[in-house]
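Thread title: Can someone regenerate the structure for this chain?

I was given the following input by a collaborator and told the matching structure tokens would be attached. They weren't. Posting the sequence so someone can regenerate them.
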Amino acid sequence: MNVTVTGATGTLGLACIEMLVRAGHQVRAFVRDPAKFERLCSETRVEVVEGDILERATVAAALEMTDAAIHCVDFAPSQYSLNWEALRHLLEGLGPGKQLVYPGNVWVFGIPEAERLGPDHPKASPSRLGKVKADLEKAVTAKDGTVVRLPDVYGPGVYGGRLRSIFDRALAGKTLHIRGDLDRRWECLYIADAARALIAPLERPRARGVDYTAPGSAVITPREFASLIFQAAGHSPRIRRVPTGFHTIFQLLRREHRAQRELAYVDDLPILLDGTLIRQELGWVPEVDYRDGVKRTVKWIRGLSS
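Best answer:
Regenerated them for you:
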């Protein structure tokens, strides 16, 4: 299958590229900066196409002879509305009959109404970003695309984000300041498992127009996960809770922090995803447990500086 990955220099995009090549697909990376992609990706069996997702013509050209696309572009919260333009260009470029897979996230949920949240759980986010994300997902499934909703991801190749900063501070033996309830029921997903979930719908007609949820390997708490990182790094845990509503003046002056402030409620809720449908229909289950995943991630981060 000929598959194009947008946002191929990002965390999910790079992981999908590697998993697609391993699965024997013909892979095209659509990127703004080919040099950056070549620095980040050692895989040579990839066609690299330069372009901007916000330019309709370059998107259409990149999608020629493509059977499917995995859309890993995700604009920063302060520019989140640009995701609509990007998605429109992608859907127009793919045309009818082609397959689209889109990563979702837990922003779309409000207060959980069940222990595990599956595709049918109400998308009732009180936040503006959550509502926009839910509408983007609806637009994908309305065009027979597939949404695969993921929790936070971690692992080799994750260069940014909140979980990566937790790894960096723990490896340095510094105190972690984690926002929200440290002992709530929580989950995250190893990056390779996330990539497998995103390529699982390919060549599966029954996945068209479907919304899947892909959970972590088990239920854990933020405190327990952080403690595993300290243990793998050879340091005693130093973890402190930051109250959910706490924001410094510096943070409030930054557009990114202002845009994400309304999502802070997620840090106090036990949002756990239900993997029943994706397991039954696509055969996907997470393979890497937290202890092994943390060890692999610590080894990778240390290797970056060696």
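The domain at 2-156+190-215+271-287 is CATH 3.40.50.720 (Rossmann fold).
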